[in-house]
Amino acid sequence: MLSLESDFTQTCKINVEETVQGIVSRRFQNDSSLGAALVRMQFHDCFVEGCDASLLLNGNGTEKTAGPNGSVRGYELIYEIKTELEDKCADKVSCADIIVMATRDTIALSKGSRYEVETGRRDGTDSQASKADANLPSPSISVFDSIEVFKTKGLNATDMVLLLGGHTLGKASCGNFESRLYSSPPDKSRTGI
């Protein structure tokens, strides 16, 4: 079992938290939509096989190539942070931890609450598009079906609303839900909440 710690990265000769926060802050100044992008990235990574950065792996048939992940972005930021940390603290900070820390920092920069992040995650080596397709909830499923998908991960309806709402940080693409607004009959699944 993986054990996370609040001071896992303290053996580095640099302050990992400050390094991540500095790079995120510089990039966020030019692109404030990074908050929503990284919340989405973290969700899409963690919801498949846990927070293991398997979403970052390249190749045919990897999670990155799965349909639901086609709009995930922010990879360049994670790679930039990883490159900087490897230069100063080789083989210590995983991409999985970087995703979690960078997401936390963009949330704080987006006027959300800053929270502590425990580190010590290990990067996954298995990345399959089929697992992403099977695990990530489609935006076209009903609310009731979405609640059921989240239950399989040990999450409740409130968790679902927070995680799906956090994807957007205030905006959503109408194409993902307008059919449920104007369908005949209307989607009655919302009564399942």
TrEMBL record:
Q: Which GO terms describe its biological process?
A: response to oxidative stress
Q: Which cofactor does it need?
A: Ca(2+); heme b
Q: What keywords are annotated for this sequence in UniProt?
A: Calcium, Disulfide bond, Heme, Iron, Metal-binding, Oxidoreductase, Peroxidase
Protein known as: Plant heme peroxidase family profile domain-containing protein
Q: Where, by residue number, does Ca(2+) 1 bind?
A: D45, V48, G50, D52, S54, E63
Stretches for region Disordered: 115-135
**Which residues does substrate bind?**
P137
Q: Which residues form the active site?
A: H44 (proton acceptor)
Q: Where is this site: Transition state stabilizer?
A: R40
Binding, Ca(2+) 2: T168
Organism per entry: Papaver somniferum
- Organism ancestry: Eukaryota, Viridiplantae, Streptophyta, Embryophyta, Tracheophyta
Which domain of life does the protein's organism represent?
Answer: Eukaryota
The entry's heme b-binding residues are H167
Q: Would you identify the family this protein belongs to, as annotated?
A: Belongs to the peroxidase family. Ascorbate peroxidase subfamily.
The UniProt regions of compositional bias labelled Basic and acidic residues, in chain numbering, are 115-125
Q: Which cysteines are joined by disulfide bonds?
A: C12-C89, C46-C51
